[in-house]
Amino acid sequence: MTAKELAEMLSGRKYGMEITSEEARAAKDAGLVVVYGYSDDNVEFAGAIDDEVGAYEGATILLTPAGVLQEPDCGMDDCPYFAKEREKARTIKAVWHDEGGPCWTFETDIPHETFTIMEDGEPWCIGIVFSMADLEVTV
Fold it and tell me: 38-56: b or e for each residue (b if 16 or more CB lie within 10 Å)?
C-alpha cells in the first residue's frame, strides 16, 4: 500500500469514522502515518505512529523516526538533549480554521498525500498520509 492509495481510500470518510483498526494496522505494516484533526483540539496519528496531540487553536508538531517529539518534563528550559532532537525533527503545522472551509488543515514539507474528511456533506478536515521513511535524517 502506498500513501496515495491509502489517502484515496480514506478520502470522503465521515467525521468520527476516519480510519478502521484494520486499516491502521495495514498502514503501520506499510510504514505509513495518517494525520487528521479530531474535535476542535486534537490531532490524531494512526498507522506507524499511534498518538494524539493536543492542538487547541492549532499547533506545530515535531516528528522524528521514533514518533512525536514531546517537550521534556525535566524542568530544564535549555535541555541540550531535546535541542539536539528538535534540530533533526520534521514539523507538521496543524491549522485550525474557526470560519469557512475545512476546520483542520496541515502544512508540512514532509512528502505526503491528502484526503478529505466530511461532516454534514461539507469538508471538515484535510488530512495527510506520509511515509515514515521520509522522517529519516539524511546527512
Answer: beeebbbbbbbbeeebebe
The string of pLDDT tens digits covering residues 17-75 is 999 999 999 999 999 999 999 998 999 999 999 999 999 989 999 999 999 988 776 66
The amino acid occupying position 4 is K
Q: Which DSSP symbol is given to 66?
A: T
Strand partners, 46: 34
Task: Single out the residue of 52, 54, 53, 7 nearest to residue 27, CA to CA.
Answer: 7
Question: pLDDT tens digits, residue range 94-109?
Answer: 999 988 789 999 999 9
Output the nine-digit C-alpha cell for 60.
506545530
E strands within 16-112? Answer: 32-38, 42-47, 51-54, 59-64, 67-68, 90-96, 104-108
Is 14 within 8 Å of 115 (Cβ atoms)? no
DSSP state of 132: G
Tell me how crowded residue 121 is: count the other CB atoms within 10 A of its CB.
Answer: 7
This prediction's pTM: 0.91
